[in-house]
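Running this now, will post back.
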Amino acid sequence: MKQRISQLYLGSLIREERVYNAAVLIQNREIIGIQHKINLSGYDVFDEKRYFKAGEKSLVFDLDDVRVGINIYEDIRVGNPTKIQAEQDAHSPLIQS
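Update: finished.
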């Protein structure tokens, strides 16, 4: 019988020592990776800096045979995270807006 693989990619608030705006990658009911948003908005009604701690770096995760990088909205607009992830052999960027 062929193994069924289920994958889920979602946004979430993650509480560790502080609260992060994050993306979570899940496969077969296991968390594969969590990416904290790095570039928090700080203008008008989008004042994330008031509520969240910023992430520190772009991460790469193995999802089956594919390495993926996760970018959360403003992260893709500042710096060049997909280049950093490509240097870590990421094949596909996942972008959450």
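Residues 7-96 form one domain. More later if anyone needs it.
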